[in-house]
């Protein structure tokens, strides 16, 4: 099982059997409030009729079409629709089946871009500590989680920026922590060390989700953009979590007003209803890679299920639903309420930090001596028993409900977490 304590799980299985709106039901009929949008992906809530119908219709009409030297209309319609979703000049889409594949594809597109311009020397990448970019060999190499690379080999030629988290200086920050654009200046150190002419791209999550909800300090992403642009280095945003309204805007790029050259998305793209990821690509990169190549296949990369008809149908229906219900704006309008509810946990037992942005909150717990992660894992189990799905990573509780969450359900989420925290050692 993925990222699971297999033996622990099989001793005490937790099976989700059905879902609707803000809730799951377990196989034995218990109702569970979804405080995690599944795994950061079900942004419009579960079982949405228009998405279900679109998938059913598409399955009956065209179950599968190869997209190597062929196409089908929905994949192109979706790429067209995503022009409005991606910021600025990101007008081209390359479809994948997951966030991990979107990240690895984005890294390869960055290399292909430099290659097409005769800059083969630009083959290095810069990632960041405490980042998660999925589980492909590219993603774990630029990612900043030691356990994810421990047993594996990684790509050569990768440096990491320092992470932006400052527990001593910025604990209990509301929204973005105070200005630390200087943290991005470490990129200048890497450029001086390696030479700008060796670096293909920098990849960051605008807000790091899986490593514990780390909102970017004020001015940080802006500075990163400025430095990368000055050195001809591409900037990749991994928006697998932050896309589709999670931060109260279509993307983190839109929320922070910073435009990357490439963007990886997945999860909310189909509201979690079908596997799909995508790389948003700037016109300049597309023109160089496709326009600059000799006749024939321009980019030697792709997946059997790139732009799968069922996933494309789910994505188009999801985008329509997000727009119809104004869910990205709704997330923004709930942000203040969400923030207050999250920070009301500041005095709860074991809590050493609360952080938030959009409809995401991270609640960091003091680890038990000698047992890192054990306290939060117990909170996860107890919350589930109390009828609340949360996500934990290390000793951090991450909350990210569907964007249809009501004010009462926000109270319910934080109320149940508070109750559980009060009842554990
Ligand atoms: N990138 C980020 C920022 C993520 O949070 C995730 C998954 O949580 C991924 C990439 C990987 O996505 P997937 O699990 O769909 O491969």
Structure description:
Helix 13 packs parallel to helix 15 (407-422). Helix 10 (252-256) links the parallel strand 8 (234-238) and strand 9 (262-265). Helices cover 37% and strands 17% of the residues. The longest helix is centred in the first third of the chain and has 18 residues, at 99-116. The protein is an alpha/beta fold and 425 residues long. It folds into 2 domains: 6-47 and 326-422, Aspartate Aminotransferase, domain 1 (Alpha-Beta Complex), CATH 3.90.1150.10; 52-324, Type I PLP-dependent aspartate aminotransferase-like (Major domain) (Aspartate Aminotransferase, domain 2), CATH 3.40.640. The structure holds pyridoxal-5'-phosphate (PLP). Pyridoxal-5'-phosphate binds at residues 98-100, 103, 132-134, 205, 209-210, 238, 240-241, 266.
